[in-house]
Amino acid sequence: EDQVTQSPEALRLQEGESSSLNCSYTVSGLRGLFWYRQDPGKGPEFLFTLYSAGEEKEKERLKATLTKKESFLHITAPKPEDSATYLCAVQAGREYGNKLVFGAGTILRVKS
Amino acid sequence: GAGVSQTPSNKVTEKGKYVELRCDPISGHTALYWYRQSLGQGPEFLIYFQGTGAADDSGLPNDRFFAVRPEGSVSTLKIQRTERGDSAVYLCASSLRLSSTDTQYFGPGTRLTVL
Prior knowledge:
The complex is a heterodimer.
Chain A: E1 3-7, E2 10-14, E3 19-26, E4 30-38, E5 45-50, E6 56-59, E7 62-66, E8 70-75, E9 84-92, E10 101-102, E11 106-111
Parallel strand pairs in A: 2-11
Antiparallel strand pairs in A: 1-3, 3-8, 4-5, 4-9, 6-7, 7-8, 9-10, 9-11
Chain B: E1 5-7, E2 10-13, E3 19-24, E4 31-37, E5 44-50, E6 53-56, E7 65-68, E8 75-79, E9 88-95, E10 105-106, E11 110-114
Parallel strand pairs in B: 2-11
Antiparallel strand pairs in B: 1-3, 3-8, 4-5, 4-9, 5-6, 7-8, 9-10, 9-11
């Protein structure tokens, strides 16, 4: 059974304190790995898609990387407005079609 | 441009009642998805449509849940004989087409509470 596990469950950072969130996955035939941001009471907001091991993508203070077993979301010099839940999801195998399988998320709090 | 919209934003109902949740996808998007998110969890897949037909409904938990998309745009998720365990946020997403790794854009969700 395909699984996506995110760690830590929650992370508290001081403003400017860089860190990384982890997403490990066990799937058959990865077709894409997605990162979303979710603010309280809102739907997930798309951040990145990674397709193959070694790929990296950046957006402002965020950088996502992918290996054959996990993905990292690196946050450089975070600001309070980066506080949110970060969700990782995979799309895998023909039998699963286009559905996304999500992890439980990492709740990030950045204090000023 | 307008994103995915969902109505109502909140729905409170009593156990045993019937509810309908509506999703308006992004204009021009042919694929539409429904997910359910419980507190502290990631979204869980329910069903997706390509055009008017359900391409995969393997995530629907039981036959009390049903979804339609009669004209290939707006979709309605229908839940019969609601149970307290159905309480969750129901999310809708759409993508341009039903192809590999097409980005799914989510709406704000409908928070369903079954008393």
